[in-house]
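Thread: quick sanity check before group meeting

JM: Hey all, I'm pulling together slides for Thursday and realized we never actually wrote out the predicted structure for the chain we discussed last week. Dropping the sequence here so it's in one place. If anyone has concerns about the input, flag it before I start.
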Amino acid sequence: MKRILALQFAFDWMIYDVHMVDYDPIKEIETFWNRYALNTISANILVLLSAYVDDGVERRQLLKDEEMQSFATALYRVLIAYCIVNHRNVDITKAQLSSEENELVENEQELSKKVADFFSRLSI
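JM (edit): ok, ran it. Output follows.
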């Protein structure tokens, strides 16, 4: 029970970080995207979802609990940052992602466009 309360406190505290003078939502976004590749994010979310859907039974534990907690925390922080960017009308084009991450995102978009175009042609 203490572990759950500690986790809840840590998640609640992230909301209050936005009131700190030096809080920079763009920095939070850059940190997240430069730390986690798109395919890693997808895999981690699938692990989190499978834990929920499978109710913990026969869960494929790809990462340690600490790593999943770290990912969930980072994901929550970036969602808060995007919310603040939207709320404060911050210019998100200031975000600087690594060239490697930009290339991965670009490749992922090209591949997903090809798949979407293929299924669009099938549905006509």
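AS: nice. Residues 23-95 form one domain. The mean pLDDT is 82.
JM: adding both to the slides.
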